[in-house]
Amino acid sequence: MIVLPGTSIAAAQAALPLNALENRILLCHATGLTRVQLITRAEQPLGAEEAARLDALVARRLAGEPIAYIVGRREFFGLDFEVSDAVLIPRPDTELIVELALERLPPQGRLLDMGTGSGAIAVSIAHNRPDASVTALDVSAAALAVAQRNAANNQARVRFLQSDWFGALAAGERFELIVSNPPYIAAGDAHLSQGDLRFEPSGALTDHADGLSALRTIVAGSPAHLTAGGWLLMEHGYDQAASVRALLADGGYREVQSWRDLGGIERVSGGRVAG
Description:
Number of helices: 11
Structural class: alpha/beta
Mean pLDDT: 94
CATH superfamily of the largest domain: Vaccinia Virus protein VP39
CATH architecture of the largest domain: 3-Layer(aba) Sandwich
Radius of gyration: 21 Å
Strand order of the largest sheet: 5-4-3-6-7-9-8
Oligomer: single chain
Number of strands: 9
Shape: elongated
C-alpha cells in the first residue's frame, strides 16, 4: 500500500508518486473532499477505506489509465462532462470547433453533430445557444447513453439518434450547420498504442483505413442535409488539413479553409455548400 490508514491528508498528498495535479485529483476522488477541503483539513487522517480507495486509484493511473476515466469526469468548454471507456475523452483542441460553430449558427438555427460520443460538442453548443435546434448522432448506443446524461446534467436540449452517419436522418432533413469530430487516425498509427489512446474506444479514434474515410463520407453526404449556404465543419488530424480541404473543394464546397488550434495546428477545416 502506498499510503497507510491514519496518514494525514497532507502527508498522503506529498507521498503519492504522481504529479501534483493528479495527486490532488485522485485524493479528492478517494476522500470525497474538495480542493479547498484538502487544505483546510490537511491534518485529518485517512480512514482505512479511504486509503484503500486511494491506493487502487493510484495503481490504475500508474498502469496508464487516463485520469478522466478513473474519476469519470472531464471539463470541456466550461461544462462538466461524464466520461467512460465508451467515449473519447473531450480535449481542449476540440473547443475550437464549438467556437467556430457558435460564430456561424444563425438565430433559431439547426445544427447536426455527427459521431457525438460524450456529446461534448453538441451539448456545449446547445447549452450556449438554447434557441438552436441541435441533433446529435452516434452509432454506439453506449456512447449515446453517456451523451444523454451529459445533456441532462448541463441543461442542454439535444435530440439524440442512433445512426451510422446519415442513416437515421429523414430524407430531406436539413441543417444550417453540420459539425463532426470523426475517427481520423489511420490504421497502424503508432499513437494508437501510446498514452491515453490505448484506453479509448478504437472505433472513435481510427477508421481502420487511411484516416480519411469517415471524412469522405461526411463531405459526400452533407450537401443533401445542408440548407443553401450551410456550413460543414470537421475536426481532423494534425497533418490532414490539406487533404481535407481538397476533399471539400472536390465536393463543390465554397469558402474552404482551415483554422488553427491553440497549439498552432490546423485542426478544423470546413466550407459552405452552394447558396
